[in-house]
Task: structure prediction
Amino acid sequence: MTIRFVGIDPDTDEDGCPTVWVDTDAGELLIQGYEADEETNSACDTLSPARAPIPPGEAVVRVPKRMIPIIREACDEFGSGVR
Result:
């Protein structure tokens, strides 16, 4: 497993803040964010194409839009072959 740190929330207080990494071996983004509340989880369940509850082992997280440049950088790690 090769994980590379990409960036942390620029407005971080250094205490459990949204962070982005890439796992280049798996071809995956790793995102730490704020845990969504029950109302948000319910809305996401309702809007899901499968209209199914979020399964065990998965979670909805909130990531501030100010982190878009960091997420773009993480996506760029994989080059133009990413769709």
User: Anything to note?
Assistant: The mean pLDDT is 88. The radius of gyration is 14 Å. Residues 38-47 form the longest helix (10 residues).
